[in-house]
Amino acid sequence: MTHNAVLQLRAERLARSTRPFLARGNRIRRCQRCLLPLKNCLCDTLKPACANSRFCLVMFDTEPMKPSNTGRLIADILPDTQAFQWSRTEPPQALIDLCTSEAYQPMVVFPASYAGSERQVLSAPAAGKPPLFIMLDGTWTEARKMFRKSPYLDALPVISVDLSRVSAYRLREAHADDQYCTAEVAIALLDLAGDNTAAQALGDHFTLFRERYLAGKPHHSPAITANDAENV
């Protein structure tokens, strides 16, 4: 089992739980790495890629344990991805150190419309240091809470990406057509930063994950899966 920071975060979160975490479809026997039904496991398809860009996932509470989470797909393809449990008042020191590292140019990934007038908003990373994309991983409501209540991120610029297509993510219901899952945004960021090979690898992984996740749902039609996958 290939190790990454999201798997470690999931193990730590499970160890702290006082009762079992029951996601939708909890009666299905799942692979304990990719969290897909055993018959749909995609672990043997993983093909890590290299990128100049770095990602840091700040994950809300039980997010690492949800089978529908796509942030972990980033760590599958880019194993040096960092992942931390979100805390409003006690952020991990390792997260603070990463955000202040001179080796990267850190930026918070979030829609520009939510940034205050005093906040620097970027449309693309600057040339020079590798970009560090800090992604707030949770539901839309949770992500907005993390954005508003993480004072240790307030000094960092915001980067906003424009995805001018309807999201292909159907694993959870979006609140609006312009809201995208974590993996989709990461693919766009990699393209924006010139990491095209990694963007393609993550895109292929996301397509396969989405196809097998939907195929594992008892009410799902395989024909719809195949057609939808072509649109990702």
UniProtKB/TrEMBL annotation:
<dbReference type="InterPro" id="IPR039262">
    <property type="entry name" value="DTWD2/TAPT"/>
</dbReference>
<dbReference type="Pfam" id="PF03942">
    <property type="entry name" value="DTW"/>
</dbReference>
<keyword id="KW-0808">Transferase</keyword>
<keyword id="KW-0949">S-adenosyl-L-methionine</keyword>
<feature type="domain" description="DTW">
    <location>
        <begin position="27"/>
        <end position="218"/>
    </location>
</feature>
<keyword id="KW-0819">tRNA processing</keyword>
<dbReference type="InterPro" id="IPR005636">
    <property type="entry name" value="DTW"/>
</dbReference>
<protein>
    <recommendedName>
        <fullName>tRNA-uridine aminocarboxypropyltransferase</fullName>
        <ecNumber>2.5.1.25</ecNumber>
    </recommendedName>
</protein>
